[in-house]
Amino acid sequence: MNIILMGLPGAGKGTQAAKIKEAYPIPHISTGDMFRQAIADGTELGKRAKTFMDEGNLVPDEVTNGIVRERLAQDDTNKGYMLDGFPRTINQAQALEDITNDLNKPIEVVIFIDVDKDILKERLSGRIICRNCGQTYHLTNNPPKEAGVCDNCGSNDFYQREDDKPEVVENRLKVNEESTKALLEFYDKKGLVKRVPGDIGIDNVFAEIKKILDQI
């Protein structure tokens, strides 16, 4: 089974990817993993990617697409693979289609974990951290036992990371939503998208994903 796993930030994609990997004998391939492996293997494309990354620049599509091709050509993907974090653009999606067709490993399903934007904002902006010991909490899902007091060290000093602040979360979701919408339209036209509600509990979400995968 050849899968693309998609979801906006906070949708629970990482949790479900881990469950899929545990249940099915296919590699979980993220963009970061592919870059790290290509660099570690010392491939020509890995060396090129490293020069961009070392300078803090985005790796161009031609290099990224080449690394994806190298990774999907490996034997451990012969029985399937799960792509996570790629493609991010229509150009990458078109390149991926060419790559997977050339390798005779076409995408069979695109699973989109669908969660209402207001729920995502609450999930992402609810994280607080104890400044004294670093313990992490969530105001809704995992609050301190006593409001305003760290369970671990008793401190009253909490802070929120910059990228967890509501206004930053709002912008982050907006940017991701735009690119995700375009990709979903691209794959919808091919009849590949399966939407799974992501607000029904972790185990229930996975049960829905499993139903889809077991039909492939």
Automatic annotation (TrEMBL):
Main location: cytoplasm
Protein localization: Cytoplasm
InterPro entries reported for this sequence: Adenyl_kin_sub, Adenylat/UMP-CMP_kin, Adenylat_kinase_CS, Adenylate_kinase_lid-dom, P-loop_NTPase
Coiled coil (UniProt feature): none
The protein's Enzyme Commission number: 2.7.4.3
Reactions mediated catalytically: AMP + ATP = 2 ADP
NCBIfam families: adk (TIGR01351), PRK00279.1-2 (NF001380), PRK00279.1-3 (NF001381), PRK14527.1 (NF011100)
Protein name, entry field: Adenylate kinase
Organism of provenance: Aerococcus urinaehominis
